[in-house]
Design brief:
22 helices; alpha+beta; seven-stranded mixed beta sheet; 54% helix; 13% strand; nine-stranded mixed beta sheet; elongated
């Protein structure tokens, strides 16, 4: 306790410079704690999303009685979002079972909307077809996964949903049907956020705990020479850093509370939450209030070890020891692991992320980043010592001699920026992999609708929806369940030659009015179907339940379908004239096609919904839940990159400011000897820019290796992203330029000789 109180007295009574350092440590620590709290709260926000989605999930059964309440749920894509509509026909059974967010079930003709769906209906009247009825009210927050969710409860009558509806038993499951982020994917996000945020954050907090290390060590050495014990000296220093860390942690939690309130009102792209979702949990508070001061305690004791063990050398500024080589060992180990995975990209069997690779690969990347940071002082020392011995330039000699004496001081300034470039390269790899999933793979978009759910009039109306290029019917030939296992079957397309041409990429040899065989070199054929085979197609609702038999002809159409496509792998083309009037083959699908432009897709989906609101529409190749998850992942990754940028910039600003205060006596002494201000500015810039440039080059090389390692093990189609290299190189050059400008304030205009006497 005595050493702790002494540390507090030194903290507030050792002059203005010491107080400035304390507030720098606290401010830097508060920013780090704020970012840490945000990272720790993200899983809590996602769990809150999933919990509310699970609570409103209907429990149904296929057994319907005369008084059962029927329910039909449809989820359609609206851009990259899902629009969920729940059609409810109230009965005498379970009519009082109400989902979260509603006071009562809607009556026929009533619609209860989420706030976002309400705003959308006001701004986009074209979606009125999706919501037949008049608006009764809004869904409460307890019934929505997040504030921006598109959700609606629609009251209807039994006759409209009897065929597809299910009897309602209640509401709520223990799990979400479609989690905001799959558990397996969340593991990769945690790894990415750890690389982008937690690793730079740990370095940043360590930097904040070691501000003004030289002057602090001299003060501690004086205490040691006055008779304070070795452990007592370490405790005095640790007390100062712990108080600053604790104050910064409290301030950082307050900053996060304000940030949570602001972000819940402004939101992030594809990720919104309620204030209670992002509230600080007891675990997060404990980690921040205990973990950060604990880290500061260990860093403070370690930084005071030299002053406590050899105080005379510190007071007399003895020759510094060569930086440790352990960081280089970590770097070599990490690069070895990463390079090994990259080498598998040149083989026929590249590595995957299964089994031990799921642990070894992330460990290799983290070791590379950590080793890069710990190796920078050794690299700076070696370069400075070599150049100082050989250069004839006064500017370069002065700069390198200072870096040789204090290699760690310079690297504390640039470490955050080096890590920023390394993390940006790794994040670029994650974005490349996500882009491969979200980018359109074809210039057209197909839509599949069950033909049985459309009337003849609705078929014509959806075919005339603006944006629809062509329409057709796809169906499968009938196979006898009790028949031979090698019974031939095939898929058919009912369309004209003009419609087929618009549905596929290329077709050749089509003749209107004839049944013709389809041949796609990129797709297989039906089960043993050959020219001359009879293919029966069931027509249960027309022709008295007859069967239409088509003989697979010799005449062939060569075509190439888009991927994905509703007609991919079709085996036979049947002209509409060969089908009975108003025929509805068993299991047939009504296929539409349009441009894959997002706005065009939205117009077509709105047009289909206006004609048949309750029909199930499947956009071929579009997994709306998957797209939502990818959008959330991209948002989380963007947040991680922004936090990494903030942390890296903050580390530079805090370290550069501290370095300006710390170096004033030395700068004043050299200036009084006669060095011009221009020379001193050049010296300060070279001291920072040269080691930073070397570190940035290493960050680019190791970052690209880490990116390729991630892409290879993740099964990406792209292994070597050379297109992103110029962007990263330009960013690195910008970082070096910013650091050079940031070093200029180290040379002040006013010369104060008193600083030398104090030193």
């Amino acid at each position: 306790m005595r050493e702790f109180l002494l540390g507090l007295r030194l903290l507030f009574g050792a002059g203005r410079g010491n107080r400035i350092r304390f507030f720098l440590m606290a401010a830097g620590g508060s920013l780090g704690v704020c970012c840490l709290a945000l990272v720790l709260t993200i899983p809590q926000i996602l769990d809150a999303h999933d919990g509310r989605a699970a609570a409103r999930q209907p429990r149904t059964t296929s057994a319907q009685s005369a008084g059962s309440t029927l329910l039909l749920q449809r989820t359609d894509p609206y851009g990259s979002k899902a629009f969920t509509r729940v059609f409810i026909a109230k009965g005498t059974e379970n009519a009082g079972a109400v989902p979260p967010g509603l006071k009562e079930l809607p009556d026929p003709g009533q619609v209860v909307l989420s706030p976002r769906a309400h705003d959308l209906l006001r701004d986009q009247p074209g979606i009125k077809g999706l919501l037949p009825g008049h608006e009764k009210g809004l869904v409460g927050a307890g019934g929505l996964a997040h504030p921006d969710e598109l959700f609606a409860y629609i009251g209807t009558t039994r006759d409209k949903i009897t065929d597809d509806g299910r009897a309602l038993k209640g509401w709520g499951y223990d799990y979400a049907p479609f989690p905001a982020v799959e558990p397996s994917t969340l593991t990769y996000i945690r790894f990415a956020l750890g690389s982008l945020v937690l690793l730079p954050l740990g370095i940043f907090l360590s930097v904040c705990a070691r501000l003004s290390a030289a002057s602090r060590n001299r003060r501690l050495a004086s205490l040691r020479l006055l008779g304070l014990s070795t452990k007592g000296t370490q405790r005095v220093n640790a007390a100062e850093t712990v108080v600053a860390a604790l104050f910064g942690a409290l301030l950082g939690l307050g900053e996060y509370w304000v940030l949570n309130q602001v972000m819940t009102r402004t939101g992030l792209p594809s990720l919104r939450w309620y204030p209670a979702d992002g509230a600080l949990s007891a675990t997060t508070i404990a980690v921040c209030l205990i973990g950060c001061p604990l880290l500061a305690w260990f860093v403070g004791r370690a930084s005071a070890r030299e002053a406590a063990a050899n105080p005379l050398a510190v007071r007399r500024t003895a020759a510094p020891k060569r930086p440790t080589k352990w960081g280089g060992l970590l770097l070599v180990t990490g690069v070895g692991i990463v390079a090994g995975y990259c080498a598998t990209g040149f083989t026929d069997h590249p590595a995957d992320s299964l089994g031990p690779n799921a642990i070894v690969m992330p460990a290799g990347i983290l070791l590379t980043g950590l080793g890069l940071v710990l190796t920078l002082p050794l690299i700076s020392y070696s370069i400075a010592r070599g150049l100082a011995r050989t250069t004839q330039s006064l500017t370069l000699n002065l700069a390198m001699r200072r870096n040789e004496v204090e290699p760690g001081s310079t690297m504390r300034v640039v470490t955050g920026l080096v890590l920023l470039v390394f993390s940006a390269s790794l994040a670029q790899g994650v974005l490349i992999q996500l882009e491969q999933v979200t980018r359109p793979s074809a210039p057209v978009q197909d839509y599949s609708v069950p033909l049985a759910s459309l009337t003849t009039r609705q078929q014509h109306e959806v075919a005339d929806v603006p944006g629809v290029r062509a329409h057709a019917v796809t169906m499968m030939s009938w196979t006898d369940p009790d028949g031979s296992s090698d019974q031939p079957w095939a898929s058919a397309v009912v369309a004209t030659c003009d419609q087929l041409t618009r549905l596929v990429r290329h077709s050749e040899g089509c003749v209107d009015g004839k049944v013709m065989r389809l041949s796609d070199p990129n797709a297989g054929t039906g089960q043993g179907a050959r020219p001359g085979d009879a293919l029966p197609f069931r027509l249960p609702k027309s022709g008295g339940g007859t069967t239409l038999t088509i003989t697979l002809p010799q005449d062939e159409i060569t075509y190439s379908a888009y991927d994905p496509s509703a007609v991919h792998g079709a085996d036979v083309l049947i002209p509409p004239s060969a089908m009975p009037t108003a025929a509805r083959p068993q299991g047939a699908q009504y296929v539409l096609t349009s441009s894959s432009d997002h706005d065009e897709v939205r117009k077509v989906l709105d047009g289909i919904a206006a004609v048949a609101p309750t029909v199930a529409v499947e956009p071929i190749g579009v997994n709306i839940e998957g797209l939502q998850q990818i959008a959330v992942l991209e948002t989380l990754l963007a947040v991680g990159m922004i936090m990494g940028l903030v942390i890296g910039t903050a580390a530079f600003v805090v370290s550069a400011t501290d370095r300006a205060v710390e170096r004033r006596p030395q700068v004043t002494a050299v200036t009084l000897i006669g060095a011009p201000a221009r020379t001193m500015r050049a010296v300060q810039c070279v001291q920072v820019v040269l080691p930073l440039s070397v570190g940035l080059v290493l960050a680019l090389v190791t970052g690209k290796l880490a990116e390729s390692c991630y892409l290879i093990t993740g099964g990406s189609e792209i292994y070597w992203d050379s297109a992103g290299l110029p962007v990263l190189a330009l960013a690195a050059a910008g970082v070096a330029a910013v650091s050079a400008v940031g070093a200029l304030p180290l040379v002040g205009r006013r010369i104060d000789p008193e600083l030398i006497r104090r030193d």
